[in-house]
Fold these 4 entries.
Entry 1:
Amino acid sequence: MPKYYLILSENKLLIYQKPDNYLKNIVQKLGDRDKSPQKLTRDSLLFKVILDAILTKNGERVISLDLTNIEESVTDFYFVCDVQTNIEMRAISQHIEHQVRDICKERPLSIEESDEWVLVDYVNVVVHIFKPEDRTFYDIESLWMDSDKVQHN
């Protein structure tokens, strides 16, 4: 199976060497939308609600990447976590969606799901939920090595 490479080109995130359209569609959606002019912090309600939702549903190896000081980023924060099953993956994404809707009164711009990855996009915060082997394969964290990375569990 070929490895996926995400690259920045003209302030857009693009995919290199794509064997299927799933990841390309996710990257295209992220790159085509405008970043909000208001920057979030780790003290923002949206950030806290998403983190609590992930931890409540037992997301593993939860990290946040602060991208606010990276001009080319398409969001302020990435959350990355992993789970063991597709059921856990969907449970976390649905819990995030419900908690954010109930507490912050926001809906996601998009939710993308596959058997190996769920992405929940709130424009300023993007959540990536993986199975462990897929998290290693896609290696999102290494794409943003200049970010401020915090481990949450």
Note: The chain has one domain: 37-151.
Entry 2:
Amino acid sequence: MRVSPAQTTPELKPCPNCGKQAGELKKSELGSRFPYYVKCNACGWATDMVRLAGIAVKLWNEAKVPKAAKAKR
């Protein structure tokens, strides 16, 4: 499920893993206490699931992927 653009006030930076502008804020439809996350549609890298959409965006924008993880691509 996509979150409406009105809820995505902060802009997503490029993917911390692959560098492409393919991040998308998503909301789980499972009724979880932690429904929000951001996932890269290019490489599949995603943030942890959190309670608030703004926190998911912040985790994405501030993520630092270790160089060892990038080398495994």
Note: Residues 29 and 65 are 27 Å apart (CA to CA).
Entry 3:
Amino acid sequence: MNSYTFWVVTTIVVVSIFVFFLAKIVPDDTKQDQTVTTVEQVDATIPDNANTFVYSGGCFWCTEKDSEVLSGVYEAISGFTAGTSADPKYGYGRSGDHREGSLVYYDGSKLSFRDMVAHAFNTIDYTDDGGQFCDRGHEYTPAIYYKTLEEKAIIEELAPKGSKVAIEKESEFFPVNAGHQDYWKKNGVRYKYYRTGCGRDAKVASLPKVELPENKVYDKSHLTPLQYKVTQHEGTERAFTHEYHKNKAEGIYVDIVGGQALYSSKDKYSSGSGWPSFHKSIGEDGAVTIETPEFFSSAIELKSTEAKSHLGHIIFDNPHRPDRRRHCINGASLLFIPLAEMESKGYGDYIKYVK
């Protein structure tokens, strides 16, 4: 190699290394767009019924981009979560004990929580719990967060063999400032140099993928004509005709189609409407069901998240809740499991929500 070639090659290598690190070393916050990004600001730009999903997978520029290109996602925002430190900020040592992560808003009619979990596993290095790719340390470690026991079970079920991804209860999410939101769009060249130089796509491509069946088929042969009409064609039973509207026994109510736990007797009350009524769905956050506004109506349809069975509606006449929400449910969409039978029928984890 002559001296000219040597210096050309050396220059290219040095410039490439410089650009790679420049892509990640963003100017100090005082020189960035200091516009505060809030969850409320994002909420105002998407439908009220959008579902949310939070995960960490290294640099939030990448998890945000990977989520926003997914069909069915409304928006994703970058930020920090899963820590106790106050006011986390971008910069080495400034995020406290938080992880970088993305809060994803998605259309529940196009994507399920299972889809989001599979997508997360398929776009991160799930074998690395010391960071992600070239970014090392706790703030870059991978995690998928859940709201309910159902969601936790789904994450555990889909976790690939050898996964070291943390599975944790969802906690407060702190959006990073506007300078980092949609970074992959605003700073395309620097972003691509960083992502390529970090080896993210090459590593992800080398890992086995989580594959989901196109559509799980639920057996409906056991349904009565009324149960089928209600759950599959959004039918409504006549008021005061189903035994569950006056049932006061302890236990849980599950989806008549798929068996998903939906409601606890502890949250059931007499509304006088003639249909089984509940304050909320079962679980720590009452987030088992999908809520979809209906056209030309103030009512909100309720469906089970797994079998997508029509259950009923949210009606705003509950005097016991500040938001006045009442889950008005067709008894025909439910199957009651008495407390004494919950353990033997596989619902032992839900006993705490009944007692």
Note: The chain is about 25% helix and 20% strand.
Entry 4:
Amino acid sequence: MPETSFEILTQIGALVLEDGNEIKFSVDSYRGHKYVSVRKYLKTDTYSGPTKAGITLSPEIVAKIAQALNTLPQDIAQIQDGELGKYAKRQGLSIVLRISSYMGSKGIDLRQWQEDEAYKGWTKKGIRLPIEKLEDIKKLFTVMVKYFEDNK
């Protein structure tokens, strides 16, 4: 397979959403680099597949996010809005992990933040994870950390 090709190496797991759609967690490879993809998938009568809603994370960022998530209490009612971490993806681009409320619903946001001479602010890349699934999310991140430890 050419080094420039995309390949899904392993499906880690999925969160089933209330509307029947899913957020899938996978380890992928592109141009020889392994990374995690967290992406929303639709299931409708006319289309089933990935959406634009998603984000890619390096193994180092996955480990840092797993650590930050494990500091959150099990009782989601105790969790307050706020930034849990900001992790450099590359020069001028970071991944921000935060808890935020939107339209009366609290969630876990993984969003890309750009800061350079051209632009400062959020990019379109990111995903919102349901806080009600926090324990499942913690387990998925733990599995991904272990995957990268076992497959160096």
Note: The beta strands are 6-16, 22-30, 33-43, 48-57, 82-90, 93-102, 105-115, 120-130.
